[in-house]
Amino acid sequence: MEKTRIYIDKGEEPRFFSVAPGVHDRVAPAQKQALVDLVNAAALVVPAGNRPNLVELVETAAEDDQQSLYRILWLEKDGKPMAALGFGMVSATDDTYDCFGVAAADPEWAAKGLQALAQWMEQAQARLMRFEVDTSSAALAKGLEAHGYREEGRLDDFYADGVHQLLMIWRPKKA
Q: Given 3-state DSSP classes, what are the helix, strand and coil percentages for the chain, each rounded to the nearest 5?
């Protein structure tokens, strides 16, 4: 298995984790355009309004390999990006992360991305991952639940009348 460098924003030395073949947490400059193209053309981007944020995150990750707060986890098949997930450590917290969005060729690749992200979080010894979802994305909330996320908060009428924000949280399995 390939080893990849994970930078944790605690003033620590970089730690190394095993990453499954086809799953990457760094973006080389040569991969940037293919990932930007995936995010721009992805059939599935959630939350829908986060497409520009994901593009910006890909571009930042390609320019700054040692950035510590924000990351892109991406999956490829035969060298072609199939899913990208943007996430980052929440400052002033103890190993708490936010997932900013998922872009995928289809729902199957989105599910594979969420599974890979959970594995990454376990290896990084994360305390929790937060994903904010609106209630118009019921399929996304169900998909997150299938990958270990649970609803732990709700803001009624946050986006519009009748469209609520759900706070979906992933926590590592207890040993």
A: 30, 40, 30
